[in-house]
Every structure is written in structure tokens, then in C-alpha cells.
Amino acid sequence: MLAKSILSIAACALLMSAAAHAAQDEDPSAGKQAEKQFAVELDPDTFDVAIAGGNVFVKFFAPWCGHCKRLQPLWEQLAEIMNVDEPKVIIAKVDCTKHQTLCGAHQVTGYPTLRLFKLGEEESVKFKGTRDLPAITDFLNQELSTLAEADLSVATKREEVGENANLGKVVDLNEETFAKHVSSGNHFVKFFAPWCSHCQRLAPTWETLAKELVPEPAVTISKIDCTQFRSICQDFEVKGYPTLLWIEDGKKIEKYSGSRDLDTLKTYVEKMVGVPLKKSDEDKTAGDEAAKKEDADAEEEVAKKLTAQQLTGEAEFDESIADGVAFIKFYAPWCGHCQKLQPTWEQLATETHQAHQSGVKIAKVDCTAPENKQICIDQQVEGYPTLFLYKNGQRQSEYEGSRRLPELQAYLKKFLGHDEL
Fold first, then answer.
1. Residue 346 placed within a domain
2. Which residues, at least 6 apart from 172, have a Cβ–Cβ distance to it below 8 Å?
3. Pair (207, 107) in one structural domain
4. What does the pLDDT read at residue 82?
5. Which spans in 29-65 are helix H?
6. Which residues form the Thioredoxin domain (predicted)?
């Protein structure tokens, strides 16, 4: 697993981050104020505890250093983004004028020196790139991705010796992990969309199902977000949300059509792994009828939805903004503000579609994807999320208003010249 949160050390920074998030709803510029302090300040008493508990990216600095002063706003911006609940990495700093021995122990010979301390590794990694947000986030993505692959290797070895590392929890799958995960064994997979009300009602039951199936190690309970990983959902012919599929050794065996209460779901799993049924056929028939109605409702619901288009590569981006109005969110998957905006952005796409705005596109660009890096540099994306509206290929000023749905819709209306939204 990647690093666990160092709550005892980062508590102050996290509280300040939460306060900044709340303030941003009132004043979106609040999160960008340089005077706010989000980076965790470490000293000899807290340093070793911090790096023993998780991944920590440390800025060793001196207050009088000009380069350090120029880096300070970006470092706090990075800390505001990263120092959230259960972060993959803590953004921290050490004042070398106060803690010379500590800085000397980590080969700090100039200011600022940026070092990444990865969980479980004795040697730190020195950052040597340009001190801008894209370069730093690329560095973190690469280093933490390497660490995640190592963790996956350990998990694979456990499975080889007969342990189910996912026992008791719902496995959150993505494009990189899906095929390998379902390639062998029994898997009960939920294909869902975050905005789907049926999915939201099922979510706590799905989590409980995973916990209660600990005595059945021959099956894993999983989920995959179809708004993020559409190609996989299309491959499995998902037409409504949630769709529950039983997969064995990489092949779809059947679509579950029973009731979505905990007991019926458990009975289904027990049947599929060879344990006798506990429910009568009469109960199962009643459950099937209810599930069919829910599936019909879900398919009707998904037909009315339109998610924000995921743009990939310069050609698709240029085509998207060329004609009409395109409102685009530039984001990073790990960004807390981006995650908070995500459901609102999808709702904006849906309601724009329902208003028959054929000349309007609501889209998003993942700036951490290699094929999008140059796009985000060219568009002068300096933080996440950044919202730009394009009209017939011309970029407008950055949107800095409230990120609530009514304000986003009002902003769109200004460029459409009518009130159809």
C-alpha cells in the first residue's frame, strides 16, 4: 500500500487545509493566498516519525534564501493540494537555519534542496528538475508509481502462496489493474457511476458484503467507475448502473439480476462458489422481479446522462475547442479540489445535454497524463483545477468564480447569449 496519513504530525496543516476549502466556497481565491501555510514543518523530534509513517517530500530551506522565497508560494500550493485525508505523500519543510545537524545528515549543501523520502526505503530521492508545478508533479507521479508497482508485486506474491490480500474489502479497479485482477479466480464486480442514485444506495451494502464474505476467500468483491474507465465498461456491455457481473478467470459468466439487499447478495455468492442456497425459489423470484425493475430504471437514468468528455492528446483537444463553446476542466486525479468538483462537473455536463445545447461541450483534461502534458503547459495551467472556457477556439479569461452548479451555469450563459441552460 502507499503511505498512510501521518495525522499526528500533519493535523495542523490538515485543519488549515479544511478551513481553506470551506473559504473557497465563499471566495475561490482563498486557496491561492500565499500567506496560508499548508506544508508540515518538521524538526529533529518529528522528522524520523514522519518518514517512518509514510512518503514525505521535504523542502530543506533557509528563510533568507532568494530561491527559497520564490519557491514558497508553489510549495504551499502543492501542500494544499496533497496534504488531504490519507495522502499519498506529505509535503513538508525543514528550516536549516534552525536545524543544521538535521540538514547536514541529509546532504543538504544548498538551498532549497528537495528530497522525497519513500516509505520503507533508506535512501531519499533528490529532485533535480525545474521548480514548477508540472515538473514536480511528474516527479511525484513517477516515483510513487514505482512504489505502487513494488507493492503490487508483493501482493501478487501473497496470492501465489494462497493468501487473498483483498479479503474483507471492496477492490477499487481501474484500467491498469482490471485485466490482471479478474484474470483468474471468482470476482463479483460492480460497474457504477458516481452520480447514479441506485449506485449510491448500493454502496454501503457492497462494502458490508465484502466484509461479511471473509469466510469465502475464493471470491473478491470489486468495483469500477464507468465515468472514468469507459472502455472497460463498454467491453463488458454495461448499459445501466449499477451493473453487477460475475466474472471467472477473466470471462463474464452472468449478470446478477436478483434483489440488492445484503442477504440475497450473500446467497448469490454462496451459490456461485458452491455453497447451498439459503433462500427459497419463491423469495428469489420476487427478488428477480424487483431487480429487473431497478435495472430498467437505471438504464432509463443512464440514457439521460452525459458525462464530461475526457480529452486525450493535442489533436482531440484542438478539435474540441475549434467550434462553439467548450468549457474545460484541467485537473490531476490526486487533487482534493478536483475530486470535490468532479460530481458537479458531471452534473453540469448532464444538464447542458438535457437543455439540448448541441454547440456546448463540457470536457476535462488530465494534466498528469503524458500525452496531455504539453497541452497544460501551452494553456498556462498553473494549479488544479483550472477552468477555461473557449469560444470558437479563443480562450477566455480563467474562471475564478464559485464552483457551485448555478454559478457555473450562469457563466456559460454569458457566452451563449440566451437562457436555455
1. yes
2. 222, 223, 224
3. no
4. 82
5. 44-53
6. 14-145, 152-274, 280-417
Q: Do the bridges between strand 90-95 and strand 386-391 make them parallel or antiparallel, or are there none, so unpaired?
A: unpaired
Tell me, yes or no, whether 391 lies in a domain.
yes
User: In the structure grid, which three cell numbers stand for residue 189, read together?
Assistant: 464486480
Residues recorded for the chain: 421
Task: Examine the domain organization and report whether 309 and 400 are in the same domain.
Answer: yes
240 in the same domain as 323: no
Q: Are residues 176 and 128 in the same domain?
A: no
Is 6 part of a structural domain of the chain? no
393-396 long-range contacts (CB < 8 A, ≥24 apart) are 393/321, 393/322, 393/323, 395/321
Per-residue pLDDT, 291: 52
Name the domain count of the chain.
3
Other C-beta atoms lying within 10 Å of the C-beta of residue 327? 25
Residues assigned a catalytic role: 65, 68, 196, 199
Residue 126 has pLDDT above 70, yes or no: yes
Q: What is the pTM of this model?
A: 0.35
Higher-confidence residue: 399 or 109? 399
Same structural domain for residues 318 and 386?
yes
DSSP string over 216-284? -TTEEEEEEETTT-HHHHHHTT--SSSEEEEEETTEEEEE--S--SHHHHHHHHHHHTTPPP-S-HHHH
Pair 410, 307 in one domain: yes
pLDDT at 387 over 50: yes
pLDDT in tens, 162-183: 445 566 788 899 988 898 888 8
- CATH assignment at residue 369: 3.40.30.10
Query: How sure is the predictor about 311, in pLDDT bands with cuts at 50, 70 and 90?
Result: confident
**Residue 129, domain extent:** 40-143
Residue 115's H or E segment, with its range, is strand 113-117
C-alpha 133: how far from its chain's center? 18
Q: Are residues 180 and 122 in the same domain?
A: no
